[in-house]
Design goal:
The complex is a heterodimer of chains A (73) and B (179). Chain A has 73 residues and is mostly helical. Chain A has 5 helices and 2 strands; from the N terminus they run E-H-H-H-H-H-E. Classes of the chains: A mainly alpha (73), B mainly alpha (179).
Amino acid sequence: MAILINLDVMLVKRKVSSKELAEAVGITPQNLSVLKTGKAKAIRFSTLEAICSFLECQPGDILEFHEDEDITL
Amino acid sequence: MEKIKKISILLKYAFLVTLIIIPLFEVCAWVLFNGSYDSFFIPEFLVKSELYILSPLSDMQKALGLAASAPYILLSSYSIWQMVKLFTLYSHGKIFTAENSACYRRAAWALLIGEIVYSFSLTAVILVVTMNNKVGERLLVFGFDDANIGNIVIACVVLAISWVMDEGRKLQDEAELTI
């Protein structure tokens, strides 16, 4: 996929652990791992909203589009 | 889900028993058939052909008859085996998986090919069992009746179901990977 998930970077910037974020957003750590590793096929607006709200960031800080790239994380 | 699992286990064993009984019956029928329509075992092909002018069958004729009917019986058994596999998956709680739709697809194709093979098997069987009849009583039959058409329709429906199941599987995959 040409969409990169920069969630790890934001977690480091905000000094938040994956477990904390999963609890705050209300998803399982396994699902968060699926999202972080780029295996997710879609992200709900509600999940994105919860992540952005907790990490105080914009969707663009988490999602990045790379043209002509087929990246599988 | 529990209800699906319970019924699936029941159906799995029902198909398993059928899987054993059908070839066993066919072999017994050919081996034990004494040429009379009053006999307990009559090969399936002869029951359906309603062939009443038979000389007593030699062992060679029985063996050839069994060989001629084998392709159809094997395809039917393969179709039933796919049902066993399908209900095993259901009993394990696997409903929308690639394996499930593959089982439907393979069973449908086996059923479809089986119905085409049936006509040729019937021709071969009738030819074999009447080859020792008197001249004028030997038969060459090619049959295709409404039961065959019915089975072909069922096979096409099952094939369509397999495609629907595969689409369902894709939707489930997507739903599972939507965070």
